[in-house]
Amino acid sequence: MHGAHDFLKALAMVLCVAAVTSVLFQRLRQPVVLGYIIAGLIIGPHVPIPLVADPTIVQTLSELGVILLMFSLGLEFSLRKLFQVGATAGVTAVIQCSLMIWLGFVVGRAFGWTALESIFLGAIIAISSTTIIAKAFDEQGIKGKLREIVVGVLIVEDLIAILLMATLTAVSTGAGLSAGQLAFTLGRLALFLVGLVVVGLLVIPRVVRAVHRLERPETLLVTSVGICFAVALLAQEFGYSVALGAFLAGSLVAESGKEKEVEHLVQPVRDVFAAIFFVSVGMLIEPALIARHWVAVAVLTVVVILGKLVGVSLGVFLTGNGTRTAVQSGMSLAQIGEFSFIIAGLGLTLNATGQFLYPVAVAVSALTTLTTPFLIRASGPVANLVDRKLPKPLQTFAALYGSWVEGLRAAPPQKTTGARLRRTLRLLLLDAALLAALVIGTSVFLERLTTTLESRGGMGASVARLIVIGLASALAVPFLVGIVRLARGLGMLLADLALPPGAEGKLDRAAAPRRALVVTLQLGSLLLVGVPLLALTQPFLPGFQGAAVLLIQLVVLAVGFWRSATNLQGHVRAGSQVIVSALAAQSHGAPKEQHGEQLKTLHAILPGLGEPTPVRLEDSSPAVGRTLAELNLRGMTGATVLAIQRGEDGAVVPTAQEVLRAGDVLALAGTHEAIGAARAVLEPPRGPEAAVP
User: DSSP letter string over 261-288?
Assistant: First the structure.
């Protein structure tokens, strides 16, 4: 039991050292989070500096920092905002977590660790750190869509972490995890979330509004923080993380409409305890253990950064967000944190892992925490570089793909098509589940089946084993073919919704864009099903057989995708020429509305090019006198310039070196959000308060 003196001593030590390091790092123009981690290293028990704080007390205080940070994050994201990014967050989190679990297992086995240790390692590196990202985003002032997507992915990852812990506990104790147990775990989690949200919506917003009417800030602060800790405690009592409960509490308080006042009141308290959390991370760093396992730490750090960059970027892009947002999201989520400590500690508690795994997880978390602010800061330039280096067909595809997905989301619901979509999706998931059951069942019962065949068939053990494996492989082929065919069928149904085919007997002008969209959606469906299937079956397969099968399928689809992207490039070039001709026919000085009507007509006869939108450059536009390459319009906003109408000189299909002039009318294509961002770059600032692009 700690006395008041020990508590006061630890708190004073933490805050004083953190104050010095944070001031130093601010003077050096470095992220304050790094200063807090260095402070933790200084007052931790693992370096020979005579400033040691009680780790248990600091750890307890750091839990308050996690809860308050998650509560503040929830205040920014009402339930409506979360539902808006739900599809993107779900797809991205599933792809990314599955990829990281597979990579973790493969790396663990390569180091000679046991299968169970390798499974735990995969789970440890799968979950990113909400606390670290929230603080880094606050420091760098990152708001808007990027923040919403990243937070949505983090919330889904937390739910996946809960399922992973339940699964790992069952496997480690030898109880196994049946389909019924998994269904019970999922149902219990869903029931908890639905019950909390329904009851919370009925009670919490009303309470907050009633307290706000008292016009006593301290009462509002005490009530809000009380709600935060009460819901966090409720989540913990049900066996879930306090972070999840605190986030939901913040989202429910935000439904009151008074979230700005609450956020302003909570911020000073949150910042104090958030600093303690990062100091506690620094205290866990043990240089001697890092030196002992430096190869594993270095390899896993690289795997975490590159794996999460690829997995998150793929998921975010496939759900219709631009290249820039995808790359920035991937670089923002390239770290592990508090959930990794919990899973590593679970492995120790269950005697499923060696003592080495926990310090390795802490070291990787510390290193990726150190790199996170720099990766977030560099994500914009890296996204621009990726956009510039992409081949022309991929640049064109990336610019238009978002508008197709936007059209798909806006497509009116159709009863017949909806039923076919649900049926195709059910069959796809069923084929994947049966294939997983076949692989796992064959692996588990291989020896028994081999012995039975050997005794009854009078053949050698090796021959019997080959026959069992051969039969299982033959049975797996129909399921593999079914997954590929159903993924294509799903892609075709969705593509027809986004880009409806023309009447029979008429020229299908959307054929090239639709082919590109079908192949992309097929790739996305295959990744969404194949990567989790790979992560699930890898422990039961020797070598990389599952990865090889998935890779072959992806390569075949990638070849088809490249061909469709090349055809799309020709389609867009031809469409741009048509737009050029139409714009050239306009009289000099034609009003902006006339250009808009003409482009609307062209959109009807040239589907798949988004909705070409005219933007006229005024004399005061910051874009005048600059080339398209200098503006980097596509890389910065996601919008692409299809054509430029230039007064009496006619119209042109622009190149990257095209210098923009006053009076030019640019035909822009992309999502509505991309067009809006491009307008902000191209049009002159309005009013003295407008920011210079």
Answer: HHHHHHHHHHHHHHHHHHHHHHHT--HH
Terminal-to-terminal C-alpha distance of the chain:
58
Asked whether 581 and 651 are in contact (CB, 8 A), the reply is yes
pLDDT per residue as tens digits for the range 175-212 = 555 556 666 776 777 788 888 888 888 889 999 899 98
Is 88:152 a contact under the CB 8 Å cutoff? yes
Place of tokens 């750890």: 59
Confidence check: pLDDT of 273 > 60:
yes
Distance of CA 365 to the CA centre of its chain: 18
Half-sphere exposure of 40 (CA within 13 A, CB side): 27
Distance of alpha carbon 576 from alpha carbon 643, whole angstroms: 6
Question: Distance between CA 278 and CA 287 in Å, rounded?
Answer: 17
The whole-chain average pLDDT of the chain stands at 81
- Cβ-based neighbours of 314, under 8 Å, separated by 6 or more: 95, 326, 527
Cβ proximity of 44 and 209 under 8 Å: no
pTM to 2 decimal places:
0.82
Q: Which residue do the tokens 């042109």 mark?
A: 652
- Residue (of 631, 601, 650) closest to 641 by Cα position: 631
Q: Is the distance from CB of 513 to CB of 496 less than 8 angstroms?
A: no
Q: Is the pLDDT of residue 16 over 80?
A: yes
Question: Mapping DSSP to helix (H, G, I), strand (E, B) and coil, where does residue 433 land?
Answer: helix
- Per-residue model confidence as pLDDT tens digits over 303-360: 999 999 999 999 999 888 888 889 999 999 998 877 787 788 778 777 888 878 888 8
**Contact status, residue 316 vs residue 330, Cβ threshold 8 Å:** yes
- Answer yes or no: are the C-beta atoms of 493 and 424 closer than 8 Å: yes
What is the Cα–Cα distance from 634 to 396, expressed in whole angstroms?
10
How far apart are the C-alpha atoms of 616 and 635, rounded to whole Å? 20
Question: What DSSP character marks residue 173?
Answer: T
CA pair distance 330, 529, nearest whole angstrom: 20
Q: What is the DSSP code string of 454-485?
A: HHHHT--HHHHHHHHHHHHHHHHHHHHHHHHH
Cβ atoms of 122 and 105 within 8 Å: the answer is yes
pLDDT at site 626: 84
Nearest to 43 by CA among 62, 68, 65, 69: 62
Contact 39, 18 (CB under 8 A): yes
d(CA 72, CA 249): 9
Question: How does pLDDT run across 96-147, given as a tens digit for each residue?
Answer: 999 999 999 999 999 989 888 999 999 999 988 877 887 788 878 888 888 8
Closest CA to 668 of 641, 645, 634: 641
**Look-up of token digits 């910065």:** 636
* CA geometry: angle 144, 146, 148, nearest 5 deg: 70
**Rounded alpha-carbon distances, angstroms, from residue 452 to 29, 467, 531, 669:** 70, 12, 34, 65
Highest mean pLDDT among 44-53, 56-65, 231-240, 530-539: 530-539
